[in-house]
Prior knowledge:
The chain is rod-shaped and about 135 Å long. Helix 2 runs antiparallel to helix 3. The two termini are 84 Å apart. With 467 residues, the protein is of the alpha+beta class. It contains 15 helices and 7 strands. The protein has 2 domains: 22-141 and 148-268, Rhopdopsin 7-helix transmembrane proteins, CATH 1.20.1070; 309-462, 2-Layer Sandwich (Alpha-Beta Plaits), CATH 3.30.70.270. Guanosine-5'-triphosphate (GTP) binds next to strand 1, helix 12 and helix 13. One of its GO terms (molecular function) is diguanylate cyclase activity.
Amino acid sequence: MMRFSRSPESERFVRSLSKAYAVFLLLALAAVPAFAIAYVHFFQDPTLHFEHHGFHEVAIGVSLLQGALIAYVTFHCYLRSKETFLYWLTLGFLGFTLVYGWHGVFTRLSDDHMMLFILFGPASRLVMAICLLIGLLSYGRDDESALELKPNSFWWAAISVFVVISIIVSLVAFSPWAIASRWLMELAAMGVMLSCAVIIVMRRINSPLMTVYAISVVFFAQSSIAFMLGTAWNHQWWLAHAIFAVGFMALSYSVIQGFLTTGSFSKVYSQAELFEQLRAEKERADDALLKLRNAHEELEVIAATDSLTSCANRRGFENSAQIEMERSKRSGAPLSFVTLDLDHFKQINDQHGHTIGDQVLIAFVGLVKKSLRPSDILGRIGGEEFAIILPDASLDDAVTMTERLRQMIEFELFTIEDRTINLTVSFGVSQFGVDGDDYDALYKVADHRMYRAKELGRNKVVSNEQS
Ligand SMILES: Nc1nc2c(ncn2[C@@H]2O[C@H](COP(=O)(O)OP(=O)(O)OP(=O)(O)O)[C@@H](O)[C@H]2O)c(=O)[nH]1
């Protein structure tokens, strides 16, 4: 039966297709107002009006409340993240609210002083657009170390500027440039909002919040087009309000999400980003754990190794001996134990110095290791005393092997720094299960026999009590 299966190529193709479709959806969404504007422009009678002062005042009142609330929330985001972008966004909302308020206040003057009523609309959107643009230019570029909260005086100065702007707008409304300034401000607001969208696209800022932000500014830009095509109270004019309101609410939603998560616009994570961070964190933790384990193992090795000769130290040797004795117990294979002590080593130290003595110990260990089987374990018990575990070796095997070793050492000439040193060693041998059932017993017997070898004149192997 034929089955569909995933292949890297098909996966890549679907991924590219999905990405392209996501871009198309965003573009289509951003362009929705344009369709509505075109529809109203071409199919509605532009003289149709809905002049209702009370409704307008309520609508403006609601948007002012939203503006004030969102300015306050943005301000709190700013207090948390100190991002330059966020104080400009706060200023944008604040400026919009303060200037736009007059548009509502002068609703009932619209019949007699149309320009006084109208001009505050584009003025407020232009103020917001400029703040958004300046903020956007600093988006993600803050030098973390230099982030400092603005003093209170800064905010009072900003409020004063917005009040001054409102006064200027009022004055312009009564001037001969009123109509021209309306067009100029509307075009400027549109241009600045579009510039914001272009910057976001050019800088490839595609975090979820900034995507909503981009759509909002495109909505704002289109609301300016609708305002320019409409006249006060007609449907295009109301539609312009609606488009602006949708953009404003979408932007407010972003701010709320920013506030409820990281308090920052640039540091709000999508689910995908969170998973990516989680994966990276886990990788880091696994890596650290592995390093820790390796370090631990290295430490274990160091703790079980003699630093001078690099063979097992007393602790390491005893551990290995325990393991081998357990193995021998389980398998029933013989196991022998040898202790060895260098003869008259003090004389070597006295004659050649301690450093040469060290070199002799190192060379001695090298020689012994060479003659042992890989399964045999050599350990330095202390000073010039060593021990060997011989797995799978009966007492006879151990004696044969030890005798061979004894002779080899006896005839070896250790050459260290132009000095030739001769060495002999005394050995004591014991067998596991015969001379003792645990490490201490086995060691004690072998050590006793080794001292016996010393007594017998050194350079000997002793493996029983009769010697
Ligand atoms: N160079 C060097 N000497 C060591 C080390 N550990 C112990 N020794 C020396 O080994 C010598 C042991 O001396 P003794 O216990 O009298 O034994 P010995 O001279 O070997 O004589 P016998 O064991 O009776 O044959 C001492 O001089 C210690 O200083 C070491 O790490 N390096």
